[in-house]
Write a structure and sequence with these properties.
The chain is mostly helical and 159 residues long. The chain has 6 helices and no strands. Among the domains are: 66 residues, Band 7 domain (Tetrahydropterin Synthase, Chain A, 2-Layer Sandwich), CATH 3.30.479; 45 residues, no CATH class. It is found in: Membrane.
């Protein structure tokens, strides 16, 4: 004795409901790439539901998945947000590595005063190779302070 009048129709309804429930828990990428596991999971659920009716589900295949347009948009927006988040993480990691490298370079340069002068000359060589007409000569702040303090001394002493 079965508990349903039309087991074929009831199985189809149960399959549609099970499909919606299972696909609702998956991302678009999982739906597109993992059809075999989804089919297997559906078969297990359908077999459990139809066993009391005397119906045995032998095979489930997902051939084509059509999503409503609004769901496609929301899944695409979710995927885009995930891509942007990954890009920001990669950019942040790059900035972190660059700042570490700059710190290490600063430590090396601070150990040897001539290293800064050599780096400056190397930069000037690089700039001149590009045929730029403007070259900027940085003046150390300490030199400016020294000149300012001497000029103030001359003003106060009257020289």
């Amino acid at each position: 004795v079965t508990n349903v009048e039309n087991s074929r129709y009831s199985t189809q309804l149960l399959a549609a409901t099970t499909l919606r429930n299972i696909l609702g828990t998956k991302s678009l990428q999982e739906i597109l790439c993992d059809r075999e596991n989804i089919s297997h999971s559906m078969q297990v659920h359908l077999d459990e539901g139809t066993d009391p009716w005397g119906v045995k589900v032998e095979r489930v295949e997902i051939k084509d998945v059509r999503l409503p347009v609004n769901m496609q948009r929301s899944m695409a927006a979710e995927a885009e947000a995930a891509r942007e988040a990954r890009a920001k993480i990669i950019a942040a990691e790059g900035e972190q590595k660059a700042s570490r490298a700059l710190k290490e370079a600063g430590d090396v340069i601070s150990e040897s005063p001539i290293a800064l002068q050599l780096r400056y000359l190397q930069t000037l060589t690089h700039i001149s190779a590009e045929k730029n007409s403007t070259i900027v000569f940085p003046i150390p702040v300490e030199l400016l302070r020294l000149m300012k303090s001497r000029s103030e001394m001359r003003m106060t002493t009257g020289l």
